Amino acid sequence: MDINFKQKFGTPTEQLIRRCGYGLVRDRRARQASFSRRLGQGIYPRFHMYVNSQDPLILSLHVDQKQVSYEGQTAHSGDYDSDLVKQEVDRIYNLIMGQVTTFTDEVEEENEDKGFFGKLFGK
Q1: In a 3-state reduction of DSSP, which class is residue 22?
Q2: Domain extent at residue 102
Q3: CA-based Rg of the chain, rounded to a whole angstrom?
Q4: Domains: count for the chain
Q5: DSSP class per residue in 40-104
Q6: What is d(CA 9, CA 104) in angstroms, rounded to the nearest whole number?
């Protein structure tokens, strides 16, 4: 399931994803970087996320139920549209939108004249 963001963020994508509880997956066979978040104590099941696009930011999320069963295969038992995935999509979207100001908000704040004490004390 895809998570689409229309805003430009001033924070790097990897940092946004890590703040949602995801860690970088280092797989030498994979063509692109991915991120995962465990659902229990073991490696599987886990949420698995790819960055489809940086601008605009598009994340692709699914649940890996188990590791690939056959050597040389990439197919796995994955859920792409389950209720669990939909809940996680909502959680990620709300976390990212709640924790980060958009790039345009940061530019507007920089242009705002705060005066001496505003610059000194932050407001």
Answers
A1: coil
A2: 2-121
A3: 18
A4: 1
A5: SSSS-SEEEEEEEETTTTEEEEEEE-S--SSTT-----EESSSHHHHHHHHHHHHHHHHH--BHH
A6: 8
CA dist 25 and 82 (Å) reads 23
| Stretch (H or E) spanning 110 | helix 103-111
- pTM metric for this prediction: 0.72
Peptide bond into 56 cis (omega under 30): yes
Mean pLDDT of 3-10: 89
Two tokens, residue 116: 């001496």
- Residue 38: Cβ within 10 Å count: 14
The half-sphere exposure of 2 on its side-chain side, counting CA atoms within 13 A, is 9
Task: Please state the length of the chain.
Answer: 123
**Taking 60 as the threshold, does the pLDDT of residue 101 lie above it?**
no
105 vs 110: CA distance, rounded Å:
9
3 state DSSP class of 26: coil
Q: Determine the pLDDT at residue 33.
A: 85
Closest residue by Cα to residue 36 from 67, 11, 61: 61
